[in-house]
Amino acid sequence: MPARAKAQPPSRIRIEHAAPTVDGGRWPVKRTVGDTVNVSADIFRDGHEVLRAVVRWRAPGERRWQESPLTAVDAHHDGVRWEGVFTVEAPGRTQWTVQAWVDLFAGWRDELARKVDFGQPDLSGELSEGAVLLRAAADRAKGESKRALKAAAEAIATDPRAALAPGLLELVEAVQERTEATELPEPLEIDVDRTLARFGSWYELFPRSWGGFKGVQEQLPRLQELGFDVLYMPPIHPIGHTSRKGRNNTLTAEPGDPGSPYAIGDETGGHDAIHAELGTDEDFRAFVAAANEHNIDVCLDLAVNCSPDHPWLKEHPEWFFRRPDGTLKYAENPPKKYQDIYNVNFGSEDWRGLWEALLGVVRHWVDRGVTAFRVDNPHTKPLAFWEWLIKEIRSTNPEVIFLAEAFTRRAVMRELAKIGFAQSYTYFTWKNHRWDLSEYVSELAHTEEAEYFRPNFFPTTPDILTDYLAEGGPPAFAIRLILAATLSPSYGIYSGYEHFEHVQRPGSEEFLDNEKYEIKRRALDGPLLAMMQRLNHVRRENPALQRLENVGFLDAANDEILAYAKREGPNAVICVVNLDPHNAQEGLVHVPYDLGVPPAFTVEDLLDGSVYQWRLGGNYVRMDPAERAGHVLRVRTA
Fold first, then answer.
1. Residue 376 designated active-site
2. Catalytic residue among 35, 49, 297, 376
């Protein structure tokens, strides 16, 4: 019989509670290029052996693992918690793991040191063990290290203290075998995006209200000057004729009514076609190229809607819902009805063909330079589909960003973020009070959500005009702008906001004369643009405003005043906002000692250049919203 292979005993090292993870490692945490990843784990073993540990990682497409040491920390973890850091440097999925092993030489050396200090007379047995370890290390070393290790192996025979010589431990550890080396059962992952997935200023517009692609292209220098990073456009595809909606979502369109861009498709094409009145494919390519020259990313709306005239209705009738009587079922969200739209049937027998077709649509626009997609109502489509589609796209184009437009149940919004969406719309739109703003932002910043859920704060959308803005007048728009731009690293503005557009459709939170159903004549000349421009440049100049997890709320002794601070390295910013658009408010903003500022310090208001003397403890503020909606105060350093 063949000899039985020598089996290794089970590992005696345990690695538990590795972090950061999401759902115990089921989903990757999110980071952006250049971020430092703080790693920790419980690492221990029976007995008294000395352990060593590292975090190991490899970037997307790399075969070679890099590593960085982990250090044992004692506080609150009984000495078994280890911590370390590494930096992610490329978009895509970075793998990482923790490796731990027994450091035989360090354990032997510690034991020897105790015996030498105790004065034990006979150490011959111990020294023979050390000599074996040093000679084994010398066999693996080269050059001067090899010579030094050989000399040490000879020296300890006559002088035990030679084993304790400075630098010897480091020489051995650089070359010794990793005894009992143990890793996590499977590598964990980090989904790394470009910085724009974490920090950016978005501007949304309907291109038909600006003269098509050529008209929008003319606005690019001004948008760059205003400090916007992303230009987002609702669907640019042909619009169906059948059941076309008229102004204000009426069921009958008048001659000349353009219809809703979300009723996608006519006889000229579907999701991979361009509405003729916006321009040609060449015009679109030229527009995207010009946007890139102005450091602006182009974002398209990905709406899985089909008008009754969409080519897929004839080419793939099996992809759509039919009632028992054979009629097609148009889209509904009671009491809302969308007679101009049919939803696709993800439960179709040819679901694979449907998935591939939608993947082809996204690739079509990626090939034309589109680097971001705002996905319309992703929560009404299969989560498995989005997980697959996003992974497929980012496997070849990791620079692409997906934004989830999902105002829905909290668990569903979280799951969309976990499966791959880089950003999400949020409930911020309806948070208008001190308690709910601080509670909600703290949840986003200081719970596990911070590992995977990136908010994008939009004060309005084409579908949402809140009562706060409708009733608060221009001061309300300034208040919400400051909050969006300074609380969240990513925020967005829908065109018209700078003009204080605030007239609601009776009985709803929608705009009257909604731009979804008519063409408006737009221009970048609104009175709020100056504040937008200033805020966008302030955001770029202050790293503290480019992150969410560093936010801390301050007591202001007034429920109508929201105060919060952010700090990144030496950069500290304190924001104070009057939440009442109708009345002046005053109070004492309490600056805590742990903000890391001197007992007395100078702050500069980055909105208007005013300078104030502040201190730890209470600081008086008064804001009349008609004149000043808030302060954005940078702490001056020496």
1. yes
2. 376
